[in-house]
Amino acid sequence: MTSPTVNVSNLPPSHPLADGRTATSSLVSALRGDRPARTPVWFMRQAGRSLPEYREVRQGVGMLESCLRPDLAAEITLQPVRRHDVDAAIFFSDIVVPLKLAGVDVEITAGVGPVMDRPYRTAQDVDELVARDLDDDALAPIVQAVARTVADLGTTPLIGFGGAPFTLAAYLVEGRPSRDHLAARTLMHADPETWRRLTEWTADLTGRFLRTQVLAGASAVQLFDSWAGSLSLADYTAHVAPSSTRALRHVTDLGVPGIHFGTGTGHLLPAMRDVLRDAGIGHPTVGVDYRTPLDEATALLGGDVPVQGNIDPALLAAPWPALEAHVRDVVARGAAAPGHVVNLGHGVPPTTDPAVLTRIVELVHSL
Ligand code: CP3
After folding, report:
1. What percent of the chain has pLDDT over 90?
2. What is the distance of C-alpha 150 from the center of its chain?
3. I want to staple 165 with a disulfide (CB 3.0 to 4.6 A). Which of 202, 217, 241, 331 is the partner?
4. Of the listed 34, 35, 38, 45, which one is catalytic?
5. 337: DSSP letter
6. Which of 58, 249, 291, 359 is catalytic?
7. Whose CA is closest to 292, among 276, 271, 268, 315?
8. 38 touches ligand 1 (CB under 6 Å)
9. pLDDT tens digits, 231-286
10. Are 68 and 60 in contact (CB under 8 A)?
11. What residue ranges define each of the domains in the chain, with the CATH number in brackets?
12. Nearest to 316 by CA among 342, 281, 354, 286
């Protein structure tokens, strides 16, 4: 199914999607609902600790510092493209970078994740947050890093990304990573008004982060709502979907395809697609984790949106024959959708042998 060409006239004329460099790439074609000759494949967390060249350049440099040094962020973004021949780069950054740029005291602790100076969960805490703005000057390192990256990528598209308002709010309300996001899920019911103000603020922060990446050269965006799977459909629809829609509306007029991903979201897939549609994203794609086979996901979605996924990261460490059979199965099931971008069902584990990722890319391209 070919979707109508979306208007990209609001992009700068030298943007890779506007000047034609990435417009016919396999990634953009699949996200537009086509079946390119070569099935596109990339991996969430393809940049990072699985790569020796990443560990090398990160020596002595903090995680957030590396995101804010344009030379380093661009180099790390390019590393997996050079090594694996993947069909897309994902910008090396983190979902908490816009919080940091807005002046929130956040660090990324190795092996733990984002840690705030304190939890933000009362009306007063949220007053303090919403008083903070993210100005254009603060976003300059992102603009520079994206510009450097796309200059080197040529015809390979860059995916820009941001954390969904719920996932960001879950870190803020808990103050650190948590297993079931209890405090955040309590707040949306205990004080819905404070919750709304908090998630509208995180939505605009992520929206500005996404827009900055697209204007600087990203050809698609992915909204990561990693923890959305902890929500019931009713809570997702009432307390989370509106702010995710609000975040994506920041890029609607730019005409780039959008991917919406979360884990444990088998029960939320149509609602997550509707967020993309309600935001007016011309080419919506739903990212599916490894728990729901892609043919089932496509049936749940009504058969008319492309899907992304969903190789089980656990199989990356299994013997090749088991992994190969699984990859072939993922590709076969993905054929049920109008477009398929092969990916993992979640991020690359740091212990992954990078040679295995390269081999998956070769296999997918050969099918
Ligand atoms: O290659 C890529 O995917 C691009 C870069 C990227 C990172 N984080 C770099 C990173 C992306 C897209 C993210 C998104 C992100 N960050 C999400 C959504 C995706 C998901 O995994 O669900 C979330 C929830 C975060 C928050 C976060 N940042 C966590 C949970 C962690 C892991 C902490 C740990 O050490 O295990 C981070 C740190 C982080 N972000 C690393 C990388 C490469 C590892 C830090 C390091 O290498 O020192």
Report:
1. 96
2. 18
3. 202
4. 45
5. S
6. 58
7. 268
8. no
9. 999 999 999 999 999 999 999 999 999 999 999 999 999 999 999 999 999 999 99
10. no
11. 38-283 (3.20.20.210)
12. 354
pLDDT digits over 72-119, tens only? 999 999 999 999 999 999 999 999 999 999 999 999 998 899 999 999
Rounded to an integer, what distance in angstroms lies between the CA atom of residue 64 and that of residue 105? 11
pLDDT tens-digit readout, 101-110: 999 999 999 8
Question: What is the SS3 assignment for 319?
Answer: coil
In angstroms, the CA 241 to CA 263 distance is 15
**Token pair of 301, please?**
């979605």
Q: How far apart are CA 136 and CA 140, in angstroms?
A: 7
| pTM for this prediction | 0.96
Would you report the helix, strand and coil content of the chain in percent, each value rounded to 5?
Answer: 50, 10, 40
The answer to whether residues 70 and 91 touch, using CB atoms and an 8 Å cutoff, is no
Q: Is 45 a catalytic residue?
A: yes
- Identified catalytic residue from 171, 185, 208, 273: 171
226 CB under 6 A from ligand 1? yes
Pair of tokens at residue 289: 């984790």
Q: How many residues does the chain have?
A: 367
Q: Indicate which residue's Cα is closest to atom 11 of ligand 1.
A: 94
Q: Would you give the distance in Å from CA 355 to the centre of its chain?
A: 24
For residue 130, what are its two tokens?
């919403």
